[in-house]
């Protein structure tokens, strides 16, 4: 089933009353969660996983898709009015969006963010439908060493590019891979890192791990470091719609942001932070008013928000066609597939066409729902920030603990969640990114499987890891991506040190 034909079939699946209802629920919940600082789509989907066990897979994933996009929309609201991003992809939006709000142009900033997200999400979703079958045609020809190369790329790019320090990212990844090893070795049957605990023979449940790191870790962090019991946000005032000048200045950044965000979602490029920063930098270079950036330039909101949503759609391509997540939220969706006994990969479009195309079609439907919900009702979403922090985070903690207990009906899982939550707090406290840990815990066992397959086929020959053209190209590109920035920085420093004595001598001569 090719792209257009599959998309039409997806609309037949998504346009049922039941699935439209779940899409609406997902978009509303996603927007609500996106508005709340520190609570993102990954946590929301993880919290709702235990509640969807009795649902049809198509309905559950249509709801998750609504949450995924809704959180992207909601995050821009918090960034603009609170200068505190609801999720990581909205960090750059806070720079100019909040300045626009302070200047009485908060409604225009929210409008360009919503419309840009709609346009980018729609274009990117159409590209997902177009490119997914093409990538599947390539993926079915890949061997275990090729999949291992892709997973290594995901490991290193996510670790090196997410967070403030590549070393901390690698440390987080290592912890995640160790957690992924807990349980019974699938090949030898020996237990690993269980410390004699029977409950750990099946490993650490990924849902519990994600909820612990995001929810419990966030709750402990807020309790330890909060300075006030309420969120201080700005009201929406001034011009209530975009002017003709705003439209003229926004439409090109919307398209350029889409062009940047989608391909960086398809490749393992470390989440939505990088494309949004690239979009902001590009708009600043191309702008006729570069002096406005940092002071309320509408292009600084339009471009990054488009890049954010296009990146979110692009991340579904490697997830659905290769089974490789490139962000924390994509990793949680992968876990959701596994909970239903479905493994994303090249065969998914053939074995589960109704589910996949229904999911892709629901992204277009949810995108339209979000535009309708966000433009007139943004004032309603902002009122959620009036909920006192103690009540809000106590509710999140209670919901997380109940979810952990419902997974297996075990108090051990609740205690394990508290321990992992403390680790999540320490990671946030000392600046260690959580996304590499999640990716390491999920992809680690899969990478080990592909490594063993490669070595078994080649009778232990390590050269087999790079003997295919595809894996050689992947490792070469990975080396360029990781080494090139350091080389460029070194060259620039050398040039700066060489020109400094010349400048000094010129000044002294004058």
Protein model, in words:
The structure is a single chain. The protein has helices at residues 3-14, 17-35, 41-48, 57-82, 93-102, 106-139, 144-161, 166-181, 206-225, 244-266, 273-286, 299-314, 316-322, 328-339, 348-351, 353-382, 389-408, 411-429, 435-457, 469-509; strands spanning 183-184, 191-192. The protein is an all-alpha fold and 510 residues long. The chain folds into two domains: 3-467, no CATH class; 470-510. A two-stranded antiparallel sheet has the order 1-2. A hairpin with a 6-residue loop joins strand 1 and strand 2 (191-192).
**Largest sheet data:** 2 strands, antiparallel
Radius of gyration: 23 Å
Please provide the count of β strands: 2
Spatial separation of the terminal alpha carbons: 74 Å
Globally, the shape reads globular
The residue-averaged pLDDT reads: 78
Query: How many domains make up the 3D coordinates?
Result: 2
Lateral strand order in the biggest sheet: 1-2
Low-confidence stretches: none
- Helix fraction by DSSP (H/I, runs of at least 4): over 70%
Order of helices and strands: HHHHHHHHEEHHHHHHHHHHHH
**How many helix segments?**
20
Beta-strand share of residues: under 5%
Keywords:
510 residues, 2 domains, two-stranded antiparallel ribbon, 20 helices, 2 strands, 73% helix
Short synopsis of the structure:
The chain has 20 helices and 2 strands.
Write the SSE topology.
Layout: H1 3-14, H2 17-35, H3 41-48, H4 57-82, H5 93-102, H6 106-139, H7 144-161, H8 166-181, E1 183-184, E2 191-192, H9 206-225, H10 244-266, H11 273-286, H12 299-314, H13 316-322, H14 328-339, H15 348-351, H16 353-382, H17 389-408, H18 411-429, H19 435-457, H20 469-509
Antiparallel strand pairs: 1-2
Helix pairs in contact: 1-6, 1-16, 2-4, 2-16, 3-4, 3-9, 3-14, 4-5, 4-6, 4-12, 4-14, 4-16, 5-6, 5-12, 6-10, 6-12, 6-13, 6-16, 7-8, 7-19, 7-20, 8-19, 9-17, 9-18, 10-11, 10-12, 11-12, 14-19, 17-18
């Amino acid at each position: 089933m090719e792209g257009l034909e599959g998309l039409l079939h997806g609309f037949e699946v998504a346009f049922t009353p039941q699935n439209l209802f779940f899409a609406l629920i997902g978009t509303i919940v996603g927007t609500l969660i996106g508005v709340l600082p520190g609570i993102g789509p990954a946590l929301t989907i993880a919290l709702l996983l235990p509640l969807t066990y009795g649902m049809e897979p198509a309905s559950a994933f249509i709801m998750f898709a609504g949450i995924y996009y809704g959180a992207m929309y909601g995050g821009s609201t918090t960034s603009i009015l609170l200068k505190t991003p609801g999720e990581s992809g909205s960090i750059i939006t806070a720079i100019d969006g909040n300045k626009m709000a302070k200047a009485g142009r908060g409604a225009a900033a929210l409008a360009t963010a919503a419309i840009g997200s709609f346009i980018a999400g729609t274009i990117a979703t159409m590209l997902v439908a177009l490119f997914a079958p093409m990538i599947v045609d390539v993926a079915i020809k890949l061997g275990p060493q090729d999949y291992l190369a892709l997973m290594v790329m995901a490991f290193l790019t996510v670790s090196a590019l997410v967070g403030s320090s590549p070393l901390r990212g690698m440390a987080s990844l290592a912890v995640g891979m160790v957690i992924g090893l807990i349980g019974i070795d699938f090949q030898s049957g020996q237990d690993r890192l269980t410390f004699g605990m029977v409950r750990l023979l099946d490993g650490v449940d990924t849902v519990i791990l994600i909820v612990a790191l995001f929810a419990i870790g966030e709750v402990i962090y807020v309790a330890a470091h909060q300075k006030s019991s309420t969120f201080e946000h700005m009201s929406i005032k001034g011009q209530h719609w975009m002017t003709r000048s705003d439209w003229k200045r926004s439409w090109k950044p919307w398209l350029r942001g889409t062009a940047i965000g989608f391909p960086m979602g398809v490749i393992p490029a470390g989440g939505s932070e990088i494309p949004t920063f690239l979009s902001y930098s590009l708009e600043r270079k191309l702008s006729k008013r570069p002096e406005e950036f940092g002071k309320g330039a509408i292009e600084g909101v339009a471009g990054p928000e488009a890049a954010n949503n296009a990146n979110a759609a692009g991340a579904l391509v490697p997830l659905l066609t290769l089974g490789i997540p490139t962000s924390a939220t994509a990793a949680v969706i992968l876990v959701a597939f596994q909970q239903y006994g479905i493994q994303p990969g090249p065969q998914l479009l053939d074995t589960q066409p109704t589910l996949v195309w229904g999911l892709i079609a629901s992204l277009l439907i949810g995108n339209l729902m979000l535009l309708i919900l966000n433009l007139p009702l943004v004032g309603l979403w902002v009122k959620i920030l009036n909920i006192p922090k103690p009540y809000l985070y106590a509710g999140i903690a209670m919901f997380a603990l109940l979810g952990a207990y419902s997974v297996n009906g075990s108090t051990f899982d609740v205690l394990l969640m508290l321990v992992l939550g403390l680790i999540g707090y320490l990671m946030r406290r000392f600046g260690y990114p959580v996304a590499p840990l999640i990716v390491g815990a999920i992809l680690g066992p899969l990478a080990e499987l592909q490594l063993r397959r490669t070595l078994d086929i080649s009778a232990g020959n390590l050269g087999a890891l790079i003997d295919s053209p595809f894996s050689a190209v992947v490792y070469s590109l990975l080396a360029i991506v990781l080494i090139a920035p350091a080389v460029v920085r070194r060259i620039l420093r050398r040039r700066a040190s060489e020109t400094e004595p010349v400048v000094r001598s010129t000044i002294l001569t004058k």
